[in-house]
């Protein structure tokens, strides 16, 4: 068995999206005053928190451009690995349905990092800014729990208030969390097309109705803390997903789908770790000015240096 006790955690960045709603590869779009991407700030925060490796999950089609853009920036500061998420990467006995173009979802994307990860790891989206404190909270959790041990697994999720994660320029998808008195996640629901209506109420479509969500609802922004046991769980459950839903051209297997199953089967506890960090993301091109303004404000306040990598 691999001894995780003295292993620094890794950061797994999900960056395989094609940015259809944004209009391009937002992973490499420049938001900082010296051409920095959101990924640059995420890695800077992870290094400060004590992470030892970054694993990018990307598409083969833009591998060369992605490596060229990022590798030289911080390879001397943290180990960097690249893996690809492709439709054809499926368990034995399964194949890609004719006509399918959509990726298999976030849970599948994380699994692509299996060959590069043997230690605790934190998962994030490439186009989301999570804040310095969030990485420190996750690092502190791993420091207090350096190994996953035997029996029930102990994962974590960083929670944010829903009101702090909405976009002014379109709908968003969020995993809404419910916790128990011990701070464990007991359920998570993937809610799609959430927006604030003209009456200022936050709603999303559910069947023939629109459901209301409270501003203080705790949501997952796809910032998850795992151990290598994740990969075994995924392989088992993804095969069931493919057998039941794999022929649908737009079906996806999300991280919350797997987590919800592991909680219900009592195979895992998932701690909700609260962070007071600001969160903002980029879904639409109109989100960019807001992100640029927020980063400039933090630079002026001394949160980040003007030049991240100098």
Word description of this protein:
With 310 residues, this protein is of the alpha/beta class. The protein has one domain: Alpha-Beta Complex (Spore Coat Polysaccharide Biosynthesis Protein SpsA, Chain A). The protein has seven helices and 13 strands. It has helices at 38-49, 63-74, 106-111, 132-144, 229-245, 255-264, 288-300; strands at residues 10-14, 53-58, 79-84, 121-125, 128-129, 153-161, 172-179, 185-196, 202-206, 209-213, 218-226, 268-274, 280-281. The strands form two sheets. Strands 1, 2, 3, 4, 6, 7, 8, 9, 10, 11 and 12 form an eleven-stranded mixed beta sheet that branches. Strands 5-13 form a two-stranded antiparallel sheet.
Quaternary structure state of the chains depicted: single chain
What is the annotated CATH architecture?
Alpha-Beta Complex
Rg over alpha carbons: 19 Å
Mean pLDDT: 90
The CATH superfamily title:
Spore Coat Polysaccharide Biosynthesis Protein SpsA, Chain A
Name its key features.
eleven-stranded mixed beta sheet, two-stranded antiparallel sheet, Spore Coat Polysaccharide Biosynthesis Protein SpsA, Chain A, alpha/beta, 310 residues
């Amino acid at each position: 068995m691999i001894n995780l006790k003295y292993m620094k955690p890794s950061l797994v960045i999900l960056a395989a999206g094609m940015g259809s709603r944004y209009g391009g590869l937002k992973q490499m779009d420049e938001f900082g005053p010296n051409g920095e991407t959101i990924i640059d700030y995420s890695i800077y925060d992870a290094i400060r928190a004590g992470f030892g490796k970054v694993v990018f999950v990307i598409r083969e089609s833009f591998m060369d451009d992605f490596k060229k853009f990022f590798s030289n920036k911080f390879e001397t500061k943290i180990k960097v690995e690249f893996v690809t998420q492709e439709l054809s990467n499926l368990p034995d006995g399964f194949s890609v349905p004719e006509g399918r173009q959509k990726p298999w979802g976030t849970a599948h994307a994380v699994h692509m990092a299996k060959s590069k990860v043997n230690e605790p790891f934190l998962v994030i989206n490439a186009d989301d800014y999570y804040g310095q404190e969030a990485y420190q909270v996750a690092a502190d959790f791993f420091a207090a729990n350096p190994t996953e041990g035997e029996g029930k697994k102990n994962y974590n999720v960083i929670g944010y208030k829903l009101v702090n994660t909405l976009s002014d320029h379109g709908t968003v998808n969020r995993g809404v969390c419910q916790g128990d008195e011990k701070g464990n996640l007991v359920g998570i629901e993937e809610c799609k097309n959430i927006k604030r209506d003209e009456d200022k109420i936050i709603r999303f479509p559910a069947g023939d109705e629109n459901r209301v969500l409270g501003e203080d609802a705790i949501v997952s922004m796809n910032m998850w803390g795992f151990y290598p046991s994740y990969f075994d769980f995924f392989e088992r459950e993804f095969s069931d997903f493919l057998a039941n839903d794999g022929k649908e051209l737009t079906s996806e297997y999300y991280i919350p789908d797997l987590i919800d199953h592991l909680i219900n089967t009592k195979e895992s506890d998932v701690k909700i770790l609260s962070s007071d960090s600001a969160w903002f993301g980029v879904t639409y091109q109109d989100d960019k000015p807001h992100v640029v303004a927020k980063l400039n404000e933090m630079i002026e306040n001394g949160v980040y240096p003007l030049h991240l990598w100098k």
